[in-house]
Specification:
Blueprint lengths: L2 E8 L1 E5 L4 E3 L4 E2 L3 E5 L6 E8 L7 E4 L2 E3 L6 H19 L16 E7 L9 H16 L6 H9 L13 E5 L10 E6 L7 E6 L10 H11 L1 H23 L3 H20 L10 H19 L7 E4 L5 E6 H14 L25
Parallel strand pairs: 7-9
Antiparallel strand pairs: 1-6, 2-5, 3-4, 5-10, 6-9, 7-8, 10-11, 12-14, 13-14
Helix pairs in contact: 1-2, 2-3, 5-6, 7-8
Bound molecules: adenosine-5'-diphosphate, ligand DP6 and cobalt (II) ion.
Cobalt (II) ion (CO) binds next to α2.
Amino acid sequence: MVKEVTCSAPVNIAVVKYWGKRDNELILPTNSSLSVTLDQDDLRSTTTARLIDSEGADQLWLNGAQVEITPGSRLARCLDELRQLRAQSEATSPKDVKDAQLPESRRALVIASENNFPTAAGLASSASGFAALAFTVAQLFELQMSPERLSRIARQGSGSACRSLLGGFVAWDMGTAADGGDSGARMVAPQAHWPDLEAMICVVSDSKKGTSSTGGMAATVATSALLQHRIKDVVPARMAAMEEAIASRDFEKFSALTIADSNQFHAVCLDTTPPIFYLNDVSRAIIAVVEELNRSSRALGQGTLATYTFDAGPNAVIYAPRANMKTIVSTILNFFPLADPFNDPKGYLADKTGDLSPPS
Ligand code: ADP
Ligand code: DP6
Ligand code: CO
């Protein structure tokens, strides 16, 4: 009998960036990080996992193209761990194994996943992708485990994926245990704690980046002295300050920390040998526009309007209180007109009267 499950997971965009591994196999980071998980109906990976009737090699299809599952790869390790957990539950509860039927833990998996946004372009597709994969296969195998436990399995697919198993504001505590048992996600605050905070995604380029996150951070760890300063002297205090900013919904503080962290992350990339350039001219122009918006808003005594952050790619994520989004969207569109003005899923664009209004 064919058994199949489909689930989705959202992306998360870090405001204190993970960049560097101290253990490449288990994916243990050189610093803690903190992110905001976006809504499930925005950027997401949707994954279907099917158990077929026979033994054999697992298969993965990503956005319609088959991806090879190399034995010992991160993907294979995630699937192996989930399969072992299933085998344990079959051993302790043999009724799960129907007569004359191959136990599920021995049947081959066929997995198909689709991202509804650009893959490998610096919009955290590995985060939503591996979170969706781990969650879907755990559902298929009917494994009972906490999101935190599942997050440690997803972490071994892609580090940032561990944060997408939880919603709202999520820390990834780096942990100290050699086996990674204490390196996983922790919810700092649920989304409902700060519902007024919105994210705007500016897709500057949907091309696959030239340097993957995995390759880029390995080069940084091997060559950057600035990374050592960041890990030791900057991130621990910044994590604590960011948690305070979120706890008190202090957008001024949240914004200053987010901008400083994005810029230091890109400085660390530049400090890598050979240097890694994830931002392009349009990314830098977006930074200039947001900085200028904030400068003029502050000059009027109205405080910071928006904050920006860039992952390992040229695409911007702008966080702002909902009331500021109308101004931000119209300003960004003024400088960077949309190729497709009808692509307006959030309803922020001009209606027939030319009035910009956020959705009610
Ligand atoms: P990004 O900035 O998009 O996270 P990465 O370089 O970190 O880019 O990772 C991209 C890789 O993540 C892809 O090449 C693929 O191996 C993996 N990935 C992306 N989406 C999925 C998915 N839906 N399911 C499984 N793996 C995925
Ligand atoms: C810049 O999680 O994609 O987005 O663990 O090697 O798969 P791997 O890397 P990945 O790195 C994400 C880096 C980042 C910052 C972040 O999400 O914290
Ligand atoms: Co990634």
